[in-house]
Amino acid sequence: MIIIFTHGMLNYVQYFFDQSGNERAFFGSSSRSCNSNRRSGKEAAAAVVVLVVVVVVFVVVVVVVIVVVVVVVPVVIILVVVVVVVVVVVVVVVVVVVVVAVVAVVVVMVVVSTYRFVQLVFICGSMSFLLRECNFVVG
Question: Which ranges does the record mark as transmembrane (predicted)?
Fold first, then answer.
């Protein structure tokens, strides 16, 4: 892209300063006679100023594009990766906490149910023993 631009600018300058070209310049027709193909100093200075301005604008645009590509794009990519990693870690932590909480509740319920069942069996066994003894004594 830089080579094409530079080549175009050189062609522009060559055309403007060409001694065998027609008398019309990019800035309008010359007020001199048709036999004179040379450009005036003002026209040449204007051409050089236009050329310098165009080159400076082009260089600034190229530098801005390079800065955006080299600095901004990687920073955005890094920020997106960091955000994705943080979201994944938070989701994993939340899932692990929920699973541990559910498992803990289930274990507590099983332990409590088993304890109550053992108590119930013990109480029923004791009552059964007492009832047998009472029937035996009464009977």
Answer: 45-71, 77-110
- Tokens for 138? 């009464």
- Spatial distance between the Cα atoms of 61 and 10, rounded to a whole number of angstroms: 19
Angstrom distances, CA of residue 23 to CA of 18, 49, 75: 10, 20, 53
DSSP code for 70 = I
The highest-confidence range among 77-91, 102-116, 120-134, by mean pLDDT, is: 77-91
Burial 58-70 (b: 16+ CB within 10 A, else e): eeeeeeeeeeeee
pTM for this prediction = 0.44
- Report CA-CA distances (Å) from 75 to 67, 68, 69, 70, 71: 11, 10, 10, 9, 6
